[in-house]
């Protein structure tokens, strides 16, 4: 890498990290997502980059694990010479004091960045996420109704981090950000000098962070201009979904032309999808996956019985070698998953399963559904990076794996969170989007 990137983003799960990768690439920025802390050789091989990503799994971690996970992030930020450190979180802000705490993450990172100012971008309109007077709203599914987050049919009942509070100031105060200020829509849509004055007044009062409302993309443009101006003077820490990169991209490389989208071509061989998500959106995608042979996996046995995992991997690999597309699911239709099942242990088992399958039956294209499942599944692979290929659906990027293992290098992979993707998403992996 011969020049300093403008921005380093840390994704608190792999699905969100790839969405940010896609957002940067479509804006014309040179971007690469590393799956673990990059070596000097990998950074040199990457060449000049505008944005560097680091995929992580903090969203599923407790406080002690988060401290260990985030400790190397700021040293990498300084090593790269970047101006903006973006803590990329889920666009629904689902988190809790004891699991994936956004407040704790910002406290850890800001403590390692003395003098840095901290902002939170509250929405991502392109994904149906809106923050209005501090309250978060989210669309249900790819084209569903918009709900206040504490009344959202899925996120209000999330099995690990249910969202019981829509006001992000209250939600994040429970995670340690008790002095969180707001820049509301009324200020964003006023004179630019009033927005600048409001920001300066808030950051000078020692606030933990400043939260910005976002109702449409023009709000993101205003926020991007303000935050980039700040970043040119001092390090800037920004939390939010991929809307952060969307806001900053025109300022980072104003002469760069946005990338023209192209259709995803059909798969050139059998496709494997591992579905570990419990969301209704993923359930609909499973029902619509008519090109696949479905293998139902018992989640408890997958965690507790090594022979069951090995046998399942062998059965899936055999189907793939026969040229069949396979959908491996840990939740059957109508099945009630026992609360005693450890979600993280299940995600880790899914990762081990995927690694064994790909070792036995190398593939050209793979999909993984579920934020935690995606994080642990990709971490189980012998790969070090991802680059963007095309958008499979809003919020879902088709990427290329980079690995020193020739059987994995070049594999196409799509990682999707539970709320992301169109009903025919898995069919798109097989047939493309043309």
UniProtKB/TrEMBL annotation:
TM ranges are none
**Domain Four-carbon acid sugar kinase N-terminal: start-end pairs:** 7-248
Pfam families, A to Z = NBD_C (PF17042), SBD_N (PF07005)
Its Gene Ontology molecular function terms? ATP binding; kinase activity
Domain of life (superkingdom): Bacteria
List UniProt keywords, sorted A-Z: ATP-binding, Carbohydrate metabolism, Kinase, Nucleotide-binding, Transferase
> Which segments constitute the Four-carbon acid sugar kinase nucleotide binding domain?
272-426
InterPro entries, alphabetized: 4-carb_acid_sugar_kinase_N, 4-carb_acid_sugar_kinase_N_sf, NBD_C, NBD_C_sf
Please verify whether the record's keywords include Translocase: no
Please name the Gene3D superfamilies in this protein's record: Four-carbon acid sugar kinase, nucleotide binding domain (3.40.980.20), Putative sugar-binding, N-terminal domain (3.40.50.10840)
Family named by the database record: Belongs to the four-carbon acid sugar kinase family.
List the protein's name. Four-carbon acid sugar kinase family protein
Q: Which organism is it from?
A: Polaromonas eurypsychrophila
